[in-house]
User: Which sequence fits this backbone?
């Protein structure tokens, strides 16, 4: 990796041919949460699951950033961390992998800020806590672009998702807002922690001030309502279609009595 970084640094050197005004403005780190989230108790997680999660979501991005730190410091670049925050902010049960990754990332960023501020202080570290985003507007724009193309040889059914959501009924922040915030952080207009996306600031505040028991009660109440709705749908399906198992038992009983 050191040889690759040296080669990358040579490309940014203005004195090396060909001469150019290139510079390293920002280094973006995406320590994503485990996807899809594994909603399992910690007791059911295997050693391989922990190893794969920590290696992929923590060790790899942190090692890469550590290798680039001298280059980042020399160019006085900014470091941007982007990651989801709504679920980890509440630290819900049966989300051990996601909670550990989010907690370790927060402590890493806090430590890195203190170390850089005590040395050079020329590197701006910005943490983006992302909430919910509205993707419906992007799908609508793509659908319109496909429909307006005169040389379109493929039907829109092959290009546009059929489950297009009406943007007026979708809750979430437009992705354009994330683009604007990241651009502002690259040019130095953002510092510290930036909340982007629906619920990012609210969930972060609730996770800090609400007792764990209250959070657990709210999550348990929500899950219990979902279980009740699922059971009601199952009962309606059984009532409408009948129970083939009991019908077979009744048929066998009738044959034996005959």
Assistant:
């Amino acid at each position: 990796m050191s040889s690759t970084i040296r080669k990358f640094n040579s490309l940014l050197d203005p004195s090396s041919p060909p001469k150019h005004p290139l510079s390293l403005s920002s280094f973006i780190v995406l320590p994503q949460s485990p996807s899809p989230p594994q909603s399992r108790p910690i007791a059911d997680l295997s050693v391989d699951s922990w190893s794969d999660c920590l290696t992929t979501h923590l060790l790899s991005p942190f090692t890469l950033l550590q290798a680039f730190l001298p280059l980042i410091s020399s160019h006085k670049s900014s470091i941007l961390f982007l990651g989801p925050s709504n679920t980890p902010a509440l630290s819900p049960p049966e989300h051990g992998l996601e909670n550990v990754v989010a907690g370790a990332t927060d402590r890493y960023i806090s430590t890195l800020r203190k170390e850089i501020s005590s040395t050079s202080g020329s590197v701006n570290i910005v943490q983006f806590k992302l909430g919910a985003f509205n993707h419906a507007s992007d799908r609508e724009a793509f659908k319109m672009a496909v429909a307006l193309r005169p040389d379109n040889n493929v039907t829109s059914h092959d290009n546009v998702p059929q489950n297009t959501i009406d943007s007026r009924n979708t809750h979430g922040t437009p992705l354009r807002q994330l683009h604007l915030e990241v651009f502002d952080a690259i040019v130095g207009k953002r510092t510290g922690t930036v909340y982007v996306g629906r619920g990012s600031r609210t969930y972060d505040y609730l996770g800090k001030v609400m007792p764990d028991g209250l959070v657990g009660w709210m999550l348990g109440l929500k899950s219990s309502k979902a279980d009740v709705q699922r059971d009601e749908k199952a009962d309606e399906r059984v009532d409408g279609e009948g129970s083939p198992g009991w019908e077979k038992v009744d048929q066998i009983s009738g044959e034996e009595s005959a």
Summary: The CA atoms of residues 8 and 71 lie 9 Å apart. The longest strand covers residues 78-84. The longest helix spans residues 212-241. The beta strands are 26-29, 78-84, 125-130, 133-134, 173-174, 192-196.
